[in-house]
Specification:
The complex is a heterodimer of chains A (about 675) and B (about 170).
Chain A: H1 2-30, H2 33-36, H3 39-62, H4 69-74, H5 81-87, H6 92-112, H7 119-143, H8 167-182, H9 184-196, H10 201-232, H11 243-268, H12 272-295, H13 308-332, H14 347-377, H15 387-410, H16 418-442, H17 448-474, H18 483-508, E1 510-517, E2 521-524, E3 527-538, E4 542-553, E5 556-561, E6 564-568, E7 574-577, E8 579-583, E9 586-596, E10 603-612, H19 615-632, H20 656-661
Antiparallel strand pairs in A: 1-10, 2-3, 3-4, 4-5, 4-6, 6-7, 8-9, 9-10
Chain B: H1 6-22, E1 42-44, E2 52-54, E3 63-68, H2 73-87, E4 93-98, H3 102-112, E5 118-122, H4 126-130, E6 138-142, E7 148-153, H5 158-172
Parallel strand pairs in B: 3-4, 4-5
Antiparallel strand pairs in B: 1-2, 3-6, 6-7
The chains are: A alpha+beta (about 675), B alpha/beta (about 170).
Chain lengths: ~675, ~170
């Protein structure tokens, strides 16, 4: 009964989103207040129905209702509670439902936090989102219904993929999807603005906090996914340039460009067409990511279950949504008049440079991801593009981005003097080169790549610190620094911290594959590992072989590590649970391999790593997300819309001079 | 008007490629060696007291080269199937003990049975490299002219032997 309610709620949701898409958009087009009034309650009803449906599926998982195909395939009566909830999005159908839930949650948020927006805008934005939601609901109901029943009820379920039975995976998909789907909001704002025919500063200001919010979720989602791959897959890697990882990284790159482009559009009324294109592209890339993951056109470690008919549907959906938007852009954008002018040396220029670079980086990652597909389609053979391509293309672009990031944050809008900028930044540049090139010497081996990465990271951190210090010193009493100023600096420093982690780990990681018998020791980067015991352990739905390894450094005992090899009852594939000893200065990582039977004394294959500063990668992402959060909380975004017939009210805590001096 | 149509055009091209991509299967990766002459090698025979095997001596016969190792778990799964297949004496089978210790290899064959007419050792994995082996077990069916006709990646199953290997051998043997 409950699954049928869930199914029915989905059908109702389709009806609601269809009427929302039609009534709200048409109402906006004809300026009918009574039609537009449907937008907010429509979005809220859609959220309620989706939530109801999602709740029904969760209930089916919780009560082990194996009469539902999806539950039987992705759960098991022995599965712990936490993973039963995560099992809801452990497969294709459920992740689509999660996707739809996220979309309707964003719509709910727009309907609640849009009091300052004019009714036409709200109506159009929610209308566009309603149409997007129609596509997803149809996709689910036609090709991927999670509520289908089995005629013969199996005694037990097939269990959740053991790879997904991990706390990291409980949160990774919801965060990532929240980010993915969040790209729909700036997209809807862009389409609404195109429909309006008015691409003004107001549109950019309304759109900015939403773009940043989606970016925050995407950042966290990607970071969590990378962290999960690091400790769960047991390969010690944190980024593989896998098509599915790229699918999440592409919208991130474009959204980063979009956030900055929106800032220019808001402050200076420039780059409007470019901003629109970025908004459409970031959503298009989210949809493309779905297509790549769900259709099986590319091989990937993530492609758990794929189905070509689903691919056809997503491709059609992609064609309609993106093709339609770009057609609208082609019709409307040419009517947009150019904005004001700016000098060669100005913040606009530097932001434009970085925007173009980020877009280029995204394009090269996209090319690398799709290249096997393109080559195959042209009958030139089958091949795969590996990390060497991505590293060679991506790293240099990002280095230049990091260089200009600082200059952009120092330069003034409209016009600045190059001599002045050089004067301000010279001490920072000298200090960061000195620090960046000398610190690797402490590690014993000088590494050009590490020196480069550290120099750029110090360049960003020192520049931000100096700028904040100067700003606080010059600030008059009673002046309040806008939150977005802090947000920007924190996010930039987050990038720097992340890059420190990346370069240190790439430059100085040490890895050894060894064969260890009882009592054997191995030394890596000054750490000594000694195998002291092998035991067995029974988990709720698996049994595990557990090694006990004593970790010592300079004869001093640090800790005992327990890497495991798990065999889940539902699958024959053994899973590696690496043991990690984490410190700020680096991780020590042990993963247990096969038992080696080739000799009389028992021995095991063991892989040990030392990964200096690796946690900084994810720590940096957290800081970036924190910066984004602070920026979104800026009160400027919550300001009431000034009435057209009354003079715009000056906020009391922002005297006119402040925003000009504090460049945000 | 013209300039703003560019993104739409790019997207259109991308869509065409994605649509073609849907009709292909990325997992079918053909071996570049199929249809090419098998690498010629000379290697010591396992437990052969200095005897040497020359792949040239197999010219004129259809034979199977099966790579295995005592440390390979999947080989243990495949082994009984090969032992059973060997009983039918369909074709000569040559084992390549890949990156293994001789003693361990000999012990393994005596414990689990020996389906091979001859087993050669490839301690440093050089022959494996010539054949493009990246994981054991992998097997190669080689015809009278010394050309590789089929490559099995991963363990043989009874179905593969019955439905693919045996029909292919029938085709090749007059």
């Amino acid at each position: 009964m409950i699954p049928e309610i869930g199914h029915f709620a989905l059908i109702l949701a389709l009806g609601v989103s269809l009427s929302l898409g039609l009534i709200a958009t048409v109402g906006g087009q004809h300026n009918r207040a009574d039609w537009m009034a449907f937008a907010r309650p429509g979005a809220q009803a859609l959220w309620f129905l989706t939530m109801l449906s999602f709740g029904c599926l969760t209930y089916a998982f919780f009560t082990n209702d194996f009469s539902v195909v999806y539950v039987a395939q992705h759960s098991n009566s022995k599965l712990p509670d936490m993973y039963r909830i995560a099992g809801v999005w452990g497969g294709h159908e459920g992740s689509l439902l999660l996707w739809q839930l996220m979309l309707s949650s964003w719509m709910l948020a727009v309907s609640l936090f849009s009091r300052q927006l004019p009714a036409v805008m709200v109506s159009r934005v929610l209308g566009v989102l309603g149409l997007v939601s129609v596509g997803f609901l149809l996709f689910m109901l036609i090709t991927s219904n999670p509520f289908l029943r089995l005629s013969e009820i199996p005694e037990d379920g097939r269990d959740l993929n053991p790879l997904l039975q991990d706390p990291g995976l409980v949160f990774h998909p919801p965060l990532l999807y929240m980010g993915y789907v969040g790209m729909a909001i700036p997209f809807a704002f862009a389409i609404a603005a195109l429909l309006n025919g008015r691409l003004d500063a107001a549109w950019a200001r309304w759109s900015r906090p939403w773009a940043t919010a989606a970016w925050i979720f995407l950042t966290l989602g990607i970071a969590l996914g990378s962290w999960w791959a690091y400790y769960e897959l047991g390969w010690g890697g944190w980024w593989f340039w896998d098509p599915v990882e790229n699918a999440s990284f592409l919208p991130w790159l474009v959204c980063t460009a979009l956030i900055h482009s929106l800032a220019v559009t808001e402050k200076r009324g420039l780059f409007r067409n470019w901003t629109i294109i970025l908004a459409i592209t970031s959503f298009a890339l989210s949809l493309l990511g779905t297509f790549l993951v769900r259709s099986g056109v590319l091989t990937s470690v993530h492609a758990f279950a794929t189905d070509p008919t689903r691919g056809v549907f997503i491709l059609l959906f992609l064609a309609v949504v993106v093709g339609g938007s770009l057609l609208l852009y082609a019709l409307r954008a040419s009517k947009v008049r150019a904005g004001g002018s700016f000098a060669l040396v100005s913040r606009e220029t530097f932001l434009l440079i970085n925007n173009v670079l980020l877009a280029t980086a995204a394009a090269s990652v996209l090319l690398g991801t799709l290249y096997p597909l393109l080559v195959d389609a042209l009958n030139l053979g089958k091949l795969s593009v590996g990390p060497p391509y991505f590293n060679a293309v991506f790293a240099p672009i990002m280095m230049v981005v990091m260089l200009f990031m600082v200059i952009g944050s120092y330069a003034r809008w409209k016009n600045d003097s190059a001599a002045e900028l050089v004067k301000k930044l010279r001490p920072v540049a000298i200090a960061s080169v000195l620090l960046g090139c000398s610190l690797p010497l402490l590690a014993g081996k000088w590494h050009a790549l590490v020196a480069m990465g550290l120099t750029l990271s110090f360049w960003i951190i020192l520049a931000s610190v100096v700028q904040i210090y100067r700003h606080l010193k010059d600030k008059g009493p009673g002046q309040v620094t806008p939150l977005s100023y802090w947000g920007m600096h924190i996010a930039h420093m987050g990038i720097a911290i992340c890059v420190i982690g990346v370069t240190m780990v790439e430059g100085y990681e040490a890895e050894r594959d060894v064969r260890m018998g009882m009592g054997d020791t191995v030394t890596v980067s000054g750490y000594t590992f000694k195998l002291t015991d092998m035991g067995e352990r029974l988990g709720p739905n698996y049994k595990a072989v557990v090694a006990t390894i004593e970790l010592t450094q300079n004869g001093k005992m640090i800790t005992t590590l327990h890497p495991e090899k798990r065999t889940y009852l539902s699958s024959t594939m053994p899973m590696t649970e690496a043991a990690i000893h984490s410190r700020l200065s680096g991780d020590v990582y042990v993963s247990l391999g096969e038992k080696l039977d080739d000799s009389t004394a028992p021995a095991w294959a063991m892989r040990v790593y030392h990964k200096p500063f690796v946690t900084w990668i994810w720590f940096g992402c957290l800081i970036m997300a924190l910066g984004g959060t602070i920026a979104t909380l800026d009160r400027r975004y919550r300001k009431k819309l000034p009435r057209t017939n009354t003079p715009p009210a000056q906020p009391t805590d922002h005297p006119p001079g402040v925003t000009r001096r504090v460049n945000v | 008007m013209k300039k703003t149509l560019i993104p739409l055009a790019i997207f259109g091209v991308l869509l065409v490629f994605l649509a073609i991509g849907l009709t292909r299967d990325p997992k079918e990766i053909p071996s570049p060696l199929i249809g090419k002459p098998a690498p010629v090698f000379t290697a010591p025979v396992l437990n052969g007291q200095g005897a040497v095997f020359r792949s040239k001596d197999m010219l004129g016969k259809v034979w199977l080269l099966n790579t295995w190792a005592s440390w390979c778990v999947a080989c243990r799964y495949e082994h009984p199937i090969l032992v059973e297949f060997a009983k039918s004496k369909t074709i000569p089978m040559v084992g390549l003990d890949y990156k293994d210790q001789d003693a361990a290899g000999i012990q393994w064959l005596s414990r689990y049975g020996n389906p091979y007419d001859v087993t050669v050792t490839d301690k440093d994995g050089r022959i494996g490299i010539d054949f493009g082996v990246y994981g054991v077990p992998e097997s190669f069916l080689i015809d009278q002219a010394g050309v590789i006709r089929y490559k099995q990646i991963g363990p043989f199953t009874e179905e593969v032997i019955k439905d693919t290997l045996i029909p292919l051998i029938r085709e090749l043997q007059p």
